[in-house]
Each structure stands twice: as structure tokens, then as C-alpha cells.
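Q: My labmate handed me this sequence with no annotations at all. I'd like to see what the chain might look like in three dimensions before we decide whether it's worth expressing. Could you predict it?
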Amino acid sequence: MSGLPSLRAVLLMALGVLVVTAVAGGVVVLMGDDLVRTAQEPVRRPITRAVPEAAPRLDQLVPTTAPVKDFGQGGPGVTVTPPRVLAIAPATVSRRTRLALGALKHVQKAAVVDAGAVKVAGTSLNLLAVDPADFRSWTPQPVADQPAVWSALARGELVTEAGTARKYGMILGAMYQVDGGPRLRVAASATLGLAGVDGLVSVEVGRSLGFAKGVAVLLHGKPGTIGEAGVRRLLGKGAQVVVLDAASRTQRQQPQQQQQQQQPVTVGRPTSYLDLYKAAATRCPGLSWTVLAAIGQVESSHGRNNGPSSAGALGPMQFMPATWKHYGVDGDGDGKADIWSPYDAVPGAANYLCANGAGKGGAKLRKSIWFYNHSWDYVDKVMSIAEAYARTYA
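A: Here is what I predict for the chain of 394 residues:
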């Protein structure tokens, strides 16, 4: 990922920031039917355990790794003011200009933030550097309501645009080395609604990367009302202006309708098994989180009996070591794929299931579960528990 060709020359790359188009792509590539041939593996019998009278709810089970401290929930306390216009100025926007922007007809709120870009492995990412508390209201309601997004920024981590994460196959929880800079952990992805912006970092991280101070302008008002001409006049020659609510100007869509089109937020390091299963399932489009939860219940009762099993399977999702070698992932970005860690094992299970066609549903889903443990009785049991979870957590 790369950025403004030179952090010192970020203003010269403003055009590049504004023409980046997020191309939606699949995170998981299926390389064919029944990709994994594991017929030689023995049928693994789940570890025998006593069944408790009342199993704890998934949203009350905390993975063994200590959870991070989150911002509070958004809810009614955060009134979103989605940006209608995004502009990049050729120089730092002065206080006087900012006041003038706020006084433009139909402008109800104005904000100025730092902007710049980074390169990771030669690929460009155009970023805004923001204060989490101040910027929260500028994002769609589903994003504003998600505390993990803002906690990630406060920790100095990267929040990517969902389309960018899909396009480049970025893995939540993974660390990415900035060319000539620090390593950044991708802690969350979300649909930010900012054309040409690939992600967010904190003000402090932006300063350490040499971002241009106060060059990105966001303006809020009623949909389809803020004129471009006034913005261009105030920011001067060379300013780049992008209308973010173009659809509203032609179709007069209401903000509520626009918010309904937003994609769900995906975050790393969930603080409950319920959220962990849901987040991991997003790695495999079409796979229900309930299937992962059912496997987790059958295999280890959600990490409460991690083995080894009699067949040598290990960890909360009971992987055979040879299978884990090919399909294990580093889900929490600690630098290793740990078969014993739920943050790695659950997304690893999603990865393995997806490679065998789980996202296609129907018979393909059942066959992928069979690959997980070569027993049709096992498949029936997993599907039955998954249906029960779907009813319980509907």
C-alpha cells in the first residue's frame, strides 16, 4: 500500500486521494470444489465431557486472551452528521477560512483534519488522521455505534475502508509494515462513506508519518444542498472537491435510506465468543457464524476443553496440526498463528471451511463440515446445534 509519493509532498498527491476507487473483491479465493483432500485423516471423536444443565450464553463467554478496553457504545449519545462534501486544500486551512466554510449557505457543520498517505509493499493507502472522539459523528451510524473502531484508533491502530480491505485482501488483526515507517495493526474495517479515503489513523500516528496538517475538509448539511463553487472559491486554486451525496442530488434519497445501505462493521479481537464467531464468519462470505459456533461447541465447548484429543487434535477448534499448518491464521495480530488461541483458531476454522466450499451453502456446506471431521453423524450434529443457535440469538 503506498501513499502520497512523498509525505512532504502530500498536497501534490491530493488528486490521487480523491480518485481512488474502492473495488469490492473477495477476501477468500476458492480454488475449486473439495479443495482439501484429507481422506487419510482419522475420524476424530469429540472429547467426552459432561453436559452442563444450562450452558452459558455465547455473549457471556470471554476468550482467554484479555480483552481490550473499549470506547462506550454509540447509541443516542452520538448524533451522526455525515459529510456531504470532502475537499483537499492545497495548504493548511486557516481558522479564518474554516469559519468562512462554516458560514457557506446550507453548511451546518465543518471539520478540518490532517491527511496523507503511506506505502505498504508498494501499494498506496490514502488516510485521514483524526481524533476518535471528535470524528466519530462524521461516520455512518453503524460505524459511530461500534466502540471497537474508536478504541482501535485510540490505541494507534489502523481502521480501513471495507472496500480497501477486500480489494487488497487485508486481514483483520494482522500487522503491516509501512515503507520507511512503523508497523500498523489493522484492527477494524468499516464502510466510511469517504470517496478516495482508504482508512483512518489517530492524529498522533498521522504526525509520526508526516501527514499534511489541516488540509482535508468535511462539510455537513442537508443532502444535496451544499454547492461546490463556494468551497472551491474559499480553498483556492488547486483545491480538489468531491461531492459525497451525489445520489441525493439526483434522487433525493433520505439519510435513513442511505444508512440502510451501509455495510456492517467488522472488527478484530472481539470480547465474547459470540462476537468472535460473528467476526470470523465474515472471512467466508455465505458462511453463517452459527456453524462456527456449533463446531466450537462440539469440539471444545467454546474453549473449555482444548485437548489434546485421542487423535491428537489441539485447541478450541480441535485442529489436527497438519491441517493447521496450511489453514491456521494470526487472527489477533500478535505475530503468530497459535492453534491454542481462540482469536486464531476460530478464524482459522472459517478459513478451512471456506476452502472446502462452505460459503456456497447447501450440500457444499455439509461436505465442508464433513471435511472438518469425517463423519456424517458429526455433520448432522453440527447443523442441529447451528439451527438452535440461530433460534436462540435471532
